[in-house]
Write a structure and sequence with these properties.
The chain is mainly α. Helix 4 crosses helix 5, helix 7 packs across helix 8 and helix 14 runs antiparallel to helix 15. The two termini are about 45 Å apart.
Length: about 325
């Protein structure tokens, strides 16, 4: 149960940013390996632990002291009056990340170390999403955001017995999710995977993993029908582009506007290519009507070409 709690709280990502020494990481990884094998606590000595991790006794002693101070491990020594250096001890991981002391920032908590997805700002910069909107001056945006993240929390809480602490964490993660992904897609993920998503924080930090699982599972269901549907939608974009291109003289289209239409008509994946054209649609002012008509059909993609979400800006 302890290891599961550690994974649900994105423990490895927190651990990766905890700035431990080589010896400290060796001890922690050894304890995690033991815990995964069912050994939550070990009876050993510092000398034996040094031998297992490949470090000397003194270094292991200092590392254990630091890990214990930061509440990353739990240690209980045997008889304190024992004079020998090989004192027996019981050691195990502290799987409750809220008890960890992360000293790389003032008042830092495990939530500060979780790596969330990046959001594109404009066309050049990337910014880490921190769960709050960057257009707080827009009251309508704030109202809309509250409505969307509440929908995510309600979908996640359905059928679960969440206490106040769990709800507070769910709210924070829900705000992050609606910043980076369409709310309807988030809710579909939650309803699809159900209990396989133990926390919204895990969904936010492991979105790519769940997206790949979702795509794999859906590819096994009605694959031929799905391909036919995608083909029809691709053809709809190409037909719309061809219709506008026929009126090039009437609309007095520029050379760039004609070129982008020709690309969409001939492209193997027109709905994906439409996404990139849509991002710079201000360059094609006379195609505003075309973009309004086809925006619901496009597929938002990453630079690698993977579909990430639908954009209806």
């Amino acid at each position: 149960m302890g290891v599961q709690q550690f994974l649900q709280q994105s423990g490895f990502k927190v651990l990766a940013m905890s700035r431990l020494s080589s010896c400290e990481y060796s001890i922690v990884l050894y304890l995690l390996n033991c815990a995964i094998s069912g050994l939550d606590q070990l009876i050993t000595t510092e000398t034996e632990l040094a031998s297992l991790t490949g470090h000397d006794d003194a270094e292991v002693g200092r590392a254990m002291g630091n890990l214990l101070t930061r509440n990353i491990i739990r240690v209980h020594y045997g008889d304190p009056t024992q004079k020998t250096r090989a004192k027996s001890l019981m050691i195990g991981m502290q799987f409750d990340l809220e008890k960890w002391s992360l000293d790389f920032a003032d008042k830092a908590t495990h939530d500060d170390a979780i790596v969330f997805p990046f959001r594109r700002i404009g066309h050049k910069n990337f910014q880490v999403v921190d769960g709050s909107r960057h257009d707080k001056n827009d009251r309508n945006s704030i109202k809309g955001e509250v409505a969307t993240w509440q929908r995510v929390v309600e979908a996640f809480a359905r059928g679960r017995n969440l206490n106040n602490g769990d709800l507070k964490k769910a709210e924070q993660a829900a705000k992050t999710l609606v910043e980076t992904h369409p709310v309807d897609q988030v809710i579909v993920m939650i309803l699809h995977f159900g209990a396989k998503i133990p926390t919204l924080s895990l969904l936010a930090s492991s979105w790519q993993h769940y997206s790949e699982l979702f795509e794999e599972e859906h590819q096994r269901v009605d694959l031929s029908d799905a391909r036919q549907k995608h083909s029809e939608l691709d053809q709809s974009v190409q037909d719309a582009a061809a219709k506008v291109l026929e009126k090039r003289e009437e609309l007095e289209l520029s050379e760039d506007e004609i070129t982008v239409l020709q690309i969409l008509i001939k492209h193997r994946h027109p709905r994906r290519q439409l996404f990139w054209a849509y991002q710079v649609r201000t360059r094609y002012p006379k195609l505003a009507g075309f973009f309004d008509e086809t925006a619901p059909l496009m597929l938002a993609v990453t630079t690698s070409g993977s579909v990430v979400k639908r954009t209806l800006e």
